[in-house]
Design goal:
Layout lengths: L1 H5 L2 H7 L8 H6 L8 H6 L5 E5 L4 H6 L6 E6 L6 E2 L1 H14 L4 E3 L5 E6 L1 H13 L16 E2 L6 H17 L6 H7 L25 E4 L13 E8 L2 E9 L18 E6 L2 H18 L10 H8 L1 H12 L19 E4 L5 E5 L5 E2 L7 H11 L3 E4 L5 E6 L4 H10 L2 H7 L2 H4 L1 E3 L17 H14 L9 E4 L13 E7 L2 E6 L10 E7 L1 H18 L6 H10 L3
Parallel strand pairs: 6-7, 7-8, 16-17, 17-18
Antiparallel strand pairs: 1-2, 2-5, 3-14, 4-5, 4-13, 8-9, 9-10, 11-12, 12-15, 14-15, 18-19, 19-20
The structure holds protoporphyrin IX containing FE and iron/sulfur cluster.
Amino acid sequence: MSNEKKLSPVERIKTSSDGLRGTLKESLNDAVTGSLRDDDQSLIKFHGLYQQDDRDKREARSEKKLEWLYSFMIRLRLPGGFLTPEQWIGLHHVAGEHSTGVIKITTRQTVQLHGIVKSHIKPTIQAFDTLKLDSIAACGDVNRNVLCSPNPKQSSLHEEIYAYADEISKLLLPKTRSYYDIWLDEEKLIEHSEEDPLYQDRYLPRKFKIAIAIPPNNDVDIFANDIGLIAIIQDGKLQGFNIAVGGGLSATHGNTATYARAATLIGFASTKEDLFKIVYEVVTIQRDFGNRADRKLARLKYTIDNMGVEAFKTELNKRIGFSLEEAKPYSFTERKDYYGWEQCDRGLWHYTIFVENGRVLDDEKVALKTALLELANLGKGNFRFTGNQNVILTDVKAEDKAVVQTILEKYDIIAHTDSASGIRKNSMACVALPTCPLALAEAQRYLPSLIDKIEPLLVKHELAQEDIITRMTGCPNGCGRSAISEIGFIGTAPNKYNLQLGGDYEGYRLNKTYKENLGEDELLTELDQLFNSFKNERTQDERFGDFTKRKYILGE
Ligand code: HEM
Ligand code: SF4
């Protein structure tokens, strides 16, 4: 009883929700407000939506005594980030009819649409359903979108490994039919048992994230995930997966109990059966041992640190019924996307398009959205998102390459991709303002203009060709993975950022706070000095992140 009292309020909302239904139907039918009832705002996340409001308009609306301008963000469940051309066309039209029109490619290989008003949620989900797309478990205290490194150079291996992402996503889906019931008007049928041995009625204490990387590329940032799987390849054949657990980047300013953590390598699984058992039981350990009192301390990283890694492994071995094998040697050498054309081992062609901060729209620089629609209408390639917020037009046959090239040229996509600088191509920003309620500062609306000012500094120090992994988030939650970058900007207040340094290029290591609360001029002054010393004092081939760690974080 006393334990129950300590549970966070969201725990009661989950267990009393009748399989995540709550009063969502009633909330949706209430035409008096654009908002949902309080409890339903938590529950709708499990259906892949967040209730938001336009923060730019809050003050004006309040002055006029109007309620805030509520709308919803929907995020698709897209394991491995794959869409057919038909699905892209459908997505394009859904975005136009029901949302702001901007298709946001997220840092976890899926897409989000913003600005969907309450009455449009159901038509949006129904339209996605006709495209065989869903948003189940894309947010909420469950396993979310499973990432899989989309390396176009290794397409046959990729296909084999991508299937794991899809199966793991299905393995960890909640069993409730509430999504079909609420949004797709499916009758609650007796034969659809909703018993859920994995999530029970309490789900997980917090969100859960899984990613699969195929070395040498760590573009999905394995170590930022609750479970990171590293494909072990020998002589071109998949041998199994190394398993890392307990990664997570979020922290809260001023709360020293919270911290970013890079995942710990705990072992190797050679068969699919073993791997799935391990993944499943890591989730059950988190379900049973995770902190349900304080949501800020509820991620698997804290569960593992509280138990200790060895005790965690012992519990895992007990649950899987065998002992984990030793992790195998592997090496990551990069985290970037292979922009432009690449031919794969099956002879197909893949074009990686640069999408600044994942925002697909037509703007003054490039008509990307129109171009992608024309490419989808042509139907000569599929669409695959990367963990770096870009899109690859994949699986183009040799005989179709010329016609695809014509469209890429017609819309200046090639020039747009080729002309972006190293730092811009390796930059990433989260959504932040105006929709994210947690944002303390701008991110995706600001980073492009800050990079405009950083580029001349790099040119001045003859560093224009450097690929420096640069990321900005509007708060320390780290949705744009700013804590695991070479240059990280983490918002602390309007127009103020902590400057983070010392993360590595390959994504094994977190960065550290170098200077706090800097405005734009201060950031640029700092970077100017840092680039200057990097240019003059780096060792041969030393990366910016390794240099800043050596010189400024360790103070060598
Ligand atoms: C306590 C921790 C976190 C909270 C409360 C949180 C909350 C949110 C919210 C409210 C949004 C929606 C923003 C919008 O669309 O307006 C969002 C987006 C997103 N978050 Fe988080 N987040 C957290 C940590 C993380 C971390 C550590 C990652 C990944 C490493 C992540 C990945 C994402 C992604 C991929 C998006 C989609 C938009 C984008 O690409 O920026 N989140 N998050
Ligand atoms: S990092 Fe912070 S500001 Fe950015 S989307 Fe996540 S929660 Fe919002």
